[in-house]
């Protein structure tokens, strides 16, 4: 399926959420990759909200949309990057949302097993969520 920043990749009308995706073009170097992620994100934001719309970050690191028209209440946004794709989730103002793109990696399984032991009934998503997405939350591990 081709990625198209002008139409939602996923739309959940009842929840007021749309997710847009765009490719990340990079030469493979670390610096180039970060710049390519920023450029792809900026393209998505500009395409959806017009020139002058930018992304800033709250003190907790969450992205927030800054619109040039200060009279307009900005919707909630969330941004995620994978190896080749950036995703921009757009939701209703005042209702925080989150989006994540993650390719399965053996590294996540290895690190997760160090934390949870040899428990084999834990999913890759549970490991990733425990380690990466909620690192500051207290964890209770049952073995």
Fold topology:
Layout: E1 10-12, E2 17-23, H1 30-49, E3 54-57, E4 63-66, E5 76-81, E6 85-91, H2 106-116, H3 124-133
Antiparallel strand pairs: 1-2, 2-6, 3-4, 5-6
Number of strands: 6
As a percent range, the share of strand residues is 15-25%
Helical percent range? Answer: 25-40%
What does the largest sheet look like?
4 strands, antiparallel
What's the Cα radius of gyration?
Answer: 17 Å
Written overview of the protein:
With 143 residues, this protein is of the alpha+beta class. It has helices at 30-49, 106-116, 124-133, and strands at 10-12, 17-23, 54-57, 63-66, 76-81, 85-91. A four-stranded antiparallel β-sheet has the order 1-2-6-5. It has a two-stranded antiparallel sheet with strand order 3-4. α2 (106-116) crosses α3 (124-133).
Structure keywords:
single chain; 143 residues; alpha+beta; two-stranded antiparallel sheet; 6 strands; disordered C terminus
Quick summary:
The chain has helices at 30-49, 106-116, 124-133; strands spanning 10-12, 17-23, 54-57, 63-66, 76-81, 85-91. The protein has 143 residues and is an alpha+beta fold.
């Amino acid at each position: 399926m081709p990625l198209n920043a002008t139409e939602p990749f996923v739309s959940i009308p009842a929840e007021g959420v749309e997710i847009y995706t765009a490719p990340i073009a990079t030469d493979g170097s670390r610096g180039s990759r970060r710049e390519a992620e920023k450029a792809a994100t900026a393209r998505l934001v500009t395409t959806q909200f017009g020139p002058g719309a930018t992304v800033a970050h709250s003190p907790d690191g969450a992205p927030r949309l800054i619109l040039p028209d200060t009279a307009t209440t900005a919707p909630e946004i969330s941004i995620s990057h994978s190896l080749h794709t950036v995703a921009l989730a757009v939701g209703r103002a005042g209702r925080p949302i989150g989006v994540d793109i993650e390719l399965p990696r053996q590294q996540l399984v290895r690190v997760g097993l160090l934390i949870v032991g040899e428990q084999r009934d834990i999913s890759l998503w549970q490991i990733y969520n425990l380690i990466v997405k909620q690192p500051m939350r207290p964890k209770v591990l049952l073995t």
